[in-house]
Amino acid sequence: MAESVEGRVRVPQSGEVLREEFNRWAEAGRGEGMEQDHLPITLPVLEKMRLAPADNVLDVGCGAGWLSRRLAKLVPQGRVVGMDVSDEMVRHARRTSVDFENLMFVTGEVEEIPWEPNFFSHAVSVESAYYWPDPAVGIREIFRVLKPGGSAWILINYYRDNPNSHQWGGLLAIRTHLLSAAEWSEFFCAAGFGRVQHERITDHSPTPEVYTGRWFRDAAQLRAFKAEGALLVHGVKE
Ligand SMILES: C[S@@+](CC[C@H](N)C(=O)[O-])C[C@H]1O[C@@H](n2cnc3c(N)ncnc32)[C@H](O)[C@@H]1O
Predict the structure, then answer these.
(1) 128-180: per-residue pLDDT in tens?
(2) Side by side, which strands form the sheet with 56-60?
(3) Which of 116, 117, 205, 236 is most buried, judged by most C-beta within 10 A?
(4) In sequence order, what E strands does 76-171 have?
C-alpha cells in the first residue's frame, strides 16, 4: 500500500491499474458519455490552439476519441494520433472512426509515448493529466514528441484551486493528483516549455435545477464548479 498525494492510503498505481479501471469505464460506455461534459470546456481550447490544416496533433488520454475526431476534421492535411492507456477505450475509438483517413489511435502511456521525437505541432489532453502516475514525466514526454514551435495544452477540472471538485478524489477508485495551477505550470517549465501560462475556462452550459449524480453535493455546487472553471495550462517548445 502507498499513500496518495491527498494523504489517503491507496494501492500503488501503475499503468496496469489505470488500464484495468479505464477499461471498465469503456465497457460501461463512459468514454462516449464524457463528450457531453467535456465539450463546453474543450471548444474554447480548440479556438486558442489556432490549428492549421496541415498540423499534426496528439490527443493524450483520448478516451473514446470524440476530440480526436473533431481535431481530424480541423487538420484535413495533417495527422491526428489519439493515445490512451486503456486498450478498451482505444478499441471504442477505432470502431467509431473508420471513416477518418488522417486519424489513428494507439495504446500507450503518456510516460512513454510510442512516437518519434519532434513530430507533433500540438498536443492536447482533456481531463486526463491528474490520473497520470507521474505528471512531470508525462509532460516531459509530450515536450519530446512536439516539434520546435509546437505547443502543449492540458485541460483539467480537478485541481487544487477549484474546491468544488476536491470530493472527486474520494469517489474515484484510482489515485489522483490534486495540484495547483502553479504546480502544473512548474511541470511545464521544468520540462523545458517556454511561454507557460495558465487560465480558467468557464463552462456556460445550462445547469439542471436538480442534480442527481454522485460527483457534486447538489446543483448549487455544480453551478459553482462550472463558474470557477477548468484549468488550462499551455506552453510552447521554443
Ligand atoms: C476522464 S477520461 C477523459 C477521456 C477523454 N480525454 C475525454 O475527454 O473524453 C481520462 C482518460 O485518460 C486516460 N489515461 C489516464 N492515465 C493515462 C496515462 N498515464 N497515459 C495515457 N492515458 C491515460 C484514461 O484511460 C482515460 O481514457
Answers:
(1) 999 999 999 999 999 999 999 999 999 999 999 999 999 999 999 999 999 99
(2) 103-107, 79-84, 56-60, 120-126, 146-156, 230-236, 194-201
(3) 236
(4) 79-84, 103-107, 120-126, 146-156
The structural domains of the chain, with segments of one domain joined by +, span 2-236
Atom of ligand 1 at shortest range from CA of 66: 9
Q: Sort strands 79-84 and 103-107 into parallel, antiparallel or unpaired.
A: parallel
Report the atom number in ligand 1 closest to the C-alpha of 89: 27
What residue's CA is closest to ligand 1, atom 13?
Answer: 61
Taking only the tens place, the pLDDT of each residue in 72-89 is 999 999 999 999 999 999
Residue 169: strand pairing partners? none
pLDDT digits (tens, 9 = 90+) for 58-74: 999 999 999 999 999 99
Whether residue 63 has its Cβ less than 6 Å from ligand 1 = yes
Residue among 107, 142, 121 at smallest CA distance from 26: 107
Residue among 60, 80, 131, 141 to mutate when testing ligand 1 (max atoms within 8 A of CB): 131
